[in-house]
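Escalation from tier 1.

The customer reports that the assembly of two entities below gives different structure tokens on two consecutive runs. Tier 1 could not reproduce it. I'm attaching the input and our single run for tier 2 to review.
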Amino acid sequence: MATRTIGEGVSLTRRKSFSETYIGGWIMTIDHKKIGIMYMITAFFFFLIGGTEALLVRTQLAVPDGKVLTAEIYNQVFTMHGTTMIFLFVMPMLTGFGNYVVPLMIGARDMAFPRLNAFGYWVVLFGGMFLSISFLFGQAPNAGWFNYAPLNELTTGCGATAVTCTPGLNTDFWALGILMLGVSSIAGSLNFVVTILRLRAPGMTINRMPLFTWMVLVTSFLLLFALPSVTAASILLLLDRHIGTHFFQAGAGGDPLLWQHLFWSFGHPEVYILILPAFGMISDILPVFSRKPIFGYTFVAWSGVAIGFLSFTVWAHHMFAVGLPLVAQAFFATSTTLIAIPTAVKVFNWIATIYGGKVRFTASMLFAVGFIAMFLIGGLNGVALAVVPFDYQVTDTYFVVSHLHYVLFGGTVFAVFGGIFYWFPKMSGRLLNERLGKAQFWLMLIGVNLTFFPMHILGLLGMPRRVYTYAGNLGWNDLNLMATIGAFIIAVSIMLFLWNFVITLRSGEKAGDDPWDAFTLEWDTSSPPKPYNFEVVPTVRSRRPFYDKKNPEIADWKTATH
Amino acid sequence: MRMPKIRGVKRWITIISAILLSSILLAACGENSPSIINPKGPVAAKESGLFWFILVVATIVFVAVEGMLIYSMVRFRERPNAPNPRQIHGNNAIELAWTIAPSIFLFAVLIGTIYTMFNLSNISGQGRTIEIKVVAHQWWWEFDYTNDNIVTADELVVPVGTVIHTTLESENVIHSFWIPQITGKTDVVPGHANDKVFSADTAGTYRGICTEYCGLQHAHMSFEMRALPQAEYVSWLHNQQNAAATPTDPNAVAGEKIFSTSGGCVGCHGIVGVDLKSFSDPAAKLKVGPNLTHFGSRTSIAGLVLMWKPQDCVVVTDSSGNPAIQNPSGCGLYQWLHDPQAVKPGNDMLIGKLSDTQIAQLIAYLESLQ
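Tier 1 run:
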């Protein structure tokens, strides 16, 4: 019951409406902060599911001739591990950060389209649930996260002759799930683009936006241009499977490579969609804990734009072994090598930001630095994969598995934890426990290297990816066991985080509005912020508006030249 | 200067590098591995040469960059009462320098890449090039020696030092043809005529592996490449070109009967001299299983899911006077014939239950197919 006094001695009592209840307040919300938190919690839930799938994979492969999973279940588990981590963990997690942080960073009161924002979230939740309930039918997707044709086709005519490919609902769950999640991403991206371009506080020019906001903008454009391709591919696949078309069937005049081109011209921009927001977070966290502005703001921002453009020209480096003409392969080797240049520029600028600073070793900073250290490995073995003749040897082996996990786990996941430790006080008003955070960081660093470094060598020793078992006489046993031990160390570090999360919410240290002495606008309001974010919309005169406010004598707009 | 924090960092660096180093050492012990850094042919040698080149470049970059990172962290860590650092926003000259520096490294790598790429198939060997049509099945490999009129399964036998030209065909999904010690991979794509050139320069047995995920039993789609000295290869080839020998041993005669009864093994498998007139008999196209004409000369079963040797599969007479395998659990062929679906679930060999006597007779027959 809600009671409201409307005059002296007169009060009005009515039933609370649903949106006034605690649960209803979340379900009915169109506040970007609540939606952002729901995105992140949902994403973390799927991170735990995807992580469990990873542990199942590693348990099966711990020893040769593993008997934990059958071939059929293993194939479903590894497919869903990739699909879950990419589409249901990393993408919604980064969207959640963007939702929560971007409007605050640019001094806006909400996203441009709050209802569209809520719609985007609920589609992700239901799309994710739709993909995951496939396990209850025993028919989870089982053709790999990139779901190659013609293995993804139904029962007959999938190749030159009539053979069984993937009957059952498995691939239908995948295609429909991806379509649903695509709808959500398009809605979210449009919202980000309009919000960032139209709702910035007075004085915040494009060139004064925080770098996380910059990278969310670039990522949103990538999504808008990349998603149509995988959407088309999924629809063509469903037509092939259920209407009797033959887009990907060689025997009937179609071409299985069409799938690969369509998928990877989405899939490679997608890789940068998964990492660019992480670049942005790092670019905002490092300066605060180094007590210096980002080194080379313009270069950091525009190298992100350059990566965005180039990411549309590299897709066929996933296809070096399919027999493309050598000239085409040389082109894609060149574009892939080129994309390493803006990436290297970013790394150098991050290090230069730390250099000459006053470095505070908070958990958030450790994760940010860990990100640079691990991402560098993922970048170097990525360049190795652009070396076409070497790629012929290691593509589709554990070398690639190592590469993509150094980028996505060593890179994105480290950045995500850096971001969680950094912005959690703003979201909850409480500081996560630093000691537990640092323990989590060191365990995770050890776990990641113990899991993924040996995979380089497994790849060199000829172990293909996506095998549910392997023979014991090929020299792969010890390295696989190491990787499995590492995976469980990572699991322990995640448990530490969950523990930290629970005790912080119950009895964590109060954060105050600005625990890190930070530079950007989200810290210039209460923790957590009121639904309207700012009592007065701030006016911006430089790239570090909150720094200026706290240091009026040496404000950036007085001393710097931008 | 006291540096308590650094000691902690040093300890972790030591531990991590010990782990990394030991993993590399462990790798060196894997002498049975189909290792790409232990090449046995000119194509793989060029590819592994590039690996060492990249490893050197990457190591230099790795040490330099991680070194700068750690140095900056340690050198500029927060000290009590230290003043705020100078607020430096950037420096265009430095930006230019570190845009150009990695470009030089990357350009060097790119030149090496493109040069090697266009020269990879540029190999020469003695004698004529051997043409082999590779057909990828779910989940085994068929090798059709186009000019020599023989067909083998899961065993690719070639002479040392001769150039092999393979054309790659798939009858179903995409597979990938890879022999790590001999050559990198090329996908086997339905509707695309991919090919591959390679040779072996050392006699030996090398593992071939399917490396494109191709469904349920992708894990069990390997093959063996045997590189033989020229003379041995010639005698192997002549033997393979013969029709199957007629069995004499009574168990083998009984085995042949089981094999060739209608509704028996001949429904799926061909043997030249039994149900096929020659390797190029059009009837062979209707057989979904491997050609078994010289099965007795092979040692692998069904994509290397099992191996077998005649000496592990000795046929004896049991107490009731029937033929039996002496040690069934040590005989790969017994396990396969006993229950192929348990060994490799989902494969196309769907057979009724065979008695131990029938299995022993079949094995006696298959062994005779030298």
